[in-house]
Amino acid sequence: MQKSIIISGPPAIGKTTVAKGLAKEFSMKNLSGGDVLKDMAQDEGFHTKGDDWWDTEEGMKFLSQRKNNYEFDKKVDTKLKEIFLKGGVVITSYTLPWLVSGGIKIWLDGSRQNSAKRMQTRDNVELSNALDIVKTRFEENKMLYKKLYGFDFGEDLSVFDIIINTDGLDAETVLNMAKQKVREIS
């Protein structure tokens, strides 16, 4: 059975790009925890179209609602754990690295400024707005996961096999570094 890979890190750091590239390189499936959560938000009446939905006013509203109802996150994490254990999948997830053992766990690190610049380019938003969104999403998620599971998102990186600082690197370089490190561990 092929080991599953988990990509985690702060918002807009390049998780999706790396996950898609690794999935292609190693002939694996690719799944985003955020997409599973968006499906659940859609079931709640939210209109979740577009890759940048989390950064919209409605996405931020759903994030705020999640603070009062942990069932969304618990259901997503339960589903992701089941998929992870089957092997052969690359998953982007904020929480999964702390909830499962085994596989290969990669943390993409970088400054908020770096994340905001990526978001600015990706979503065509002003840099100041992107900085606010990145900061809010990171802090809201950090509080949520501390309450929900007791870990310090972005601080306790002991569960990761690979840590890559993306500051000053383009997406292709980060992906190539991730590919090389996965080959070394596999």
Give the helices and strands, then pairings.
Blueprint: E1 5-8, H1 15-25, E2 29-32, H2 33-43, H3 57-66, H4 71-86, E3 89-92, H5 96-99, E4 104-109, H6 112-123, H7 127-149, E5 162-165, H8 171-185
Parallel strand pairs: 1-3, 1-4, 2-3, 4-5
Helix pairs in contact: 1-8, 2-4, 3-7, 6-7
Features:
186 residues; 5 strands
Q: How would you describe the overall organization of this protein?
A:
This protein has helices at residues 15-25, 33-43, 57-66, 71-86, 96-99, 112-123, 127-149, 171-185, and strands spanning 5-8, 29-32, 89-92, 104-109, 162-165. With 186 residues, the protein is of the alpha/beta class. Strands 2-3-1-4-5 form a 5-stranded parallel beta sheet, with helices on both faces. Helix 2 crosses helix 4. The longest helix has 23 residues, at 127-149. The chain starts with a strand and ends with a helix.
